[in-house]
Amino acid sequence: MTTPLIEMRDITKTFGAVVALRHVSLTVQAAEIVGLVGDNAAGKSTLMKILAGVLKPDVGEILLNGNQVQFDGPMDARASGIEMVYQDFALVPELSVTQNIFLGRELTGGGFRSRFLDNRRMNERAAHLIERLGLRIPPVDTPVRAISGGQQQAVAIARATAFEARLVIMDEPTASLGASAIEKVRQSLVQLKNHGVAVIVISHRLEDIISTADRVVVLKHGHLVGERPVAETHGDELLYMIVAGKDPKQPTDALTSQSA
Amino acid sequence: MSTGSLATLGPIARLLSDRRHLVLLAVRYGLFLVLAIWIAVMSFASEHFLTVSNMLNVSRQAAPIVIIAVGMTLVMATAGIDLSVGSLVALISILIVELFGLGLQTWIVIPAVLVVGLISGLLNGAFVRIGLPPFVVTLAALVSLRGIAFVISGGYATPVGNELVLWLGRGDIAGVHVPIVLAAIASIAGWVVLNKTRFGLYALAVGGREDAAHAMGINVGRMKLAVYGTVGTLGAVGAVVLTGRLGNGSPNAGMLLELDVIAAIVLGGTSLFGGVATIGGTVAGALFLNAVRNGLNLMGVDPYWVQVVTGWILLLAVLVNTVVNRRVTEWARAARIDDQPEA
Ligand SMILES: Nc1ncnc2c1ncn2[C@@H]1O[C@H](COP(=O)(O)OP(=O)(O)OP(=O)(O)O)[C@@H](O)[C@H]1O
Ligand SMILES: [Mg+2]
Question: Cβ B209–A91 below 8 Å, yes or no?
Answer without folding.
Answer: yes
